[in-house]
């Protein structure tokens, strides 16, 4: 547990040493000094360059001025780029309809930011913490849409006619074969699995409808907030509304995780049913 926290803290700490060393200015000076020393035969140039580099690496990473003016800005830019890459990776996996919804939600966010800037009662500094919550909600929206897309693809592949035919076939085998016959035992197990598959399907549909409803709520809340920001006097009003929305998202996250679990269970049970059916066919031969 302690190691995990230490690793997370280390990950969140900007790599000041790397920024001080691996930058074009420092590397070009090192290479230039090395080339000059080699070309002229004045090796003292190389020695001075190494000594200067040692002093630079000793003091530069801990320099408050360099951190504020250079390193921290580089760190923030890298984090924003990583965030964009992660969101884009999720975005590309969505259906075209959900991609369009995500675009509209981001546009709504930009409109909210503009309205907050235009409102003289809301300073940028006061709004910074509250508006940062919007980015988290945008990622939540993409995550929910991604779960919905996977579940909808799977639900779309569910073949009720095939399931009913198999059900009837196994029911016939149960009536045909006597107690203790292994073929009857396998047929009963298949009936049980098919019953579970139908239940999983119903559970998936309920979870999917809940997640879709939460996505609608996020879109409607963003539009309402845009209307309210125009006359809002206290940024905490926005923060309270966003916090309430995040609480709802956290609740739906649990449902989404349950949906994922149901999805995986359904796949595993489907594979088990296919394996059992294959074994039964092999015994018949």
Task: Give the C-alpha Rg.
Answer: 30 Å
Number of continuous helical runs: 10
How large a portion of the residues is in β-strands, by DSSP E?
A: under 5%
What string, H for helix and E for strand, traces the elements in order? HHHHHHHHHH
Helix coverage percent? over 70%
The structural domain count equals 2
Number of strands: 0
Shape summary = flat
The profile of the biggest β sheet is: none
Mean of all residue-level pLDDT scores: 79
The assigned structural class equals mainly alpha
Instruction: Report the uncertain regions.
Output: none
How widely separated are the two ends?
55 Å
Description:
- It is built from ten helices and no strands.
- By secondary structure, it is mainly alpha-helical.
Short characterization:
This protein has helices at residues 2-12, 16-21, 24-40, 43-59, 64-92, 96-118, 124-156, 160-176, 182-229, 235-284. It has 285 residues and is mainly alpha-helical.
